[in-house]
Amino acid sequence: MSNSTGNFLSALLRVLLSIFKKSPKPPAPPVTPTVPPDSTTEPAQVVTRRVLVVTYDPVMDEEGTTLSQSQGWNRVETLITAFSADILQASGGMARYEIIERVERDEFPPKTDGFRYTPATYLDVLRGVSPPHTPQGVDYHYILDGLNILQRVTDGEIDEVWVFAFPYAGFYESVMAGKGAFWCNAPPLSDTAQCPRRFVIMGFNYERGVGEMLEAFGHRAESIMEQTFRRLQGEANLWKRFTRYDKIAPGKAAVGTIHFAPNSEHDYDWNNPRLVPSECDDWLHNFPNFQGEIRQVNADEWGNGDMRAHHLWWLEHLPKVAGRINGIHNNWWQYIMDPQRVIP
């Protein structure tokens, strides 16, 4: 066979293969989330979360004295009991926590670079002799892997994790993990998408009290509700309306935010005597059928500067009734407690 004949046959074969070979599969179109229909009667659901509690309270001396004991800090059990009761009260019974396991660790958890405090180096930081180690962030994956948390959440054994630790331990107040995790007062935890369920890890400090625990929870609520309402604009975004305060919306205050009461001039200004008009009662008694109920309010309403009292007041005003509007349930606690319910 001549070279010209061979070249012709090779070219013909290439043409035939190009005709009959399979075309590449086109990319799948993006999935449009299904928005549930509006309703006035869909019941508000009670949400119960099964919690794993992990406490880092290292022994500091040969007598077996723990860090919290040596410093006279709060007992974790006392904090858990009071916080759980506050959430139950504020939600009108819609949000319930069930502690299924407590794990106590006699160690300083590692930082992201592998560093660990010792009793001596930590006390130097606490006394101001040495600066805190940087980077300050804790190695979350050390904890997730060591306690098999991703698999346990996947299996439905636990729904949430509470970590109690000490100042400078490096925990976020809250952080979300799992497939589809989003901002929850901190960036979502990386390398956790193998868990098909979103879940929250709360970081509590047993040097602090229940008021600070409620603040951490309040910021979690803010992040989750911001994500829940992110597609809605204007007056349809009821979350934006709920969080109005007089400084940013003069004469149109509602309930405010965790940091800003209806009359606050700056962050943490919970003891301001200035009277401002607020529709907070309309939210508490009439949502979603607002009646235009407005009255003058000031710090007398939320504890005159008491952190825990303000945060309870704020949480108690979160909607917790039947029905849906624009696909979003009128019981906002369902989303705050279970971020898996937030439409992606």
Could you please describe the fold and organization of this structure?
- With 344 residues, the protein is an alpha/beta fold.
- The chain has 2 domains: 47-228, no CATH class; 234-325, no CATH class.
- It has helices at residues 3-20, 67-71, 76-90, 119-126, 140-146, 149-154, 210-228, 238-242, 280-285, 307-316, 333-337; strands spanning 47-56, 95-105, 160-165, 174-177, 199-205, 276-278, 295-297, 320-325, 328-331.
- The strands form 3 sheets. A 5-stranded mixed β-sheet has the order 2-1-3-5-4. The chain has a two-stranded antiparallel ribbon with strand order 6-7. Strands 8-9 form a two-stranded antiparallel ribbon.
- The model has no long low-confidence stretch (mean pLDDT 94).
Defining key terms:
single chain, 344 residues, alpha/beta, 2 domains, two-stranded antiparallel ribbon, 11 helices, 16% strand
